[in-house]
Design brief:
72 residues; mainly alpha; 0% strand; flat
Length: 72
């Protein structure tokens, strides 16, 4: 589901945007499944990102579930 430039959805999201910044070495932890998120542009250096997924569903079950959704 893309948000089109200039759309009402884009305006609503921009109004709700909250910027989180900090000095080098700062980190943020959040549940990315419950909010729309993005990283800002880097001014210098590099950014390291770590994604951790907790689930009791096996990799095979996830693949089969996704395949079923794509085929239905």
């Amino acid at each position: 589901w893309d948000v089109m430039p200039g759309s009402e959805a884009e305006a609503e999201l921009a109004q709700l945007e909250r910027e989180m910044t900090g000095p080098a070495g700062t980190f943020f932890a959040f549940d990315g499944a419950r909010l729309l998120h993005r990283g800002g542009l880097m001014e210098a250096g590099e950014r390291v990102a770590l994604q951790v997924i907790f689930s009791d569903v096996t990799w095979t079950e996830r693949v089969l579930s996704k395949a079923k959704r794509m085929l239905s």
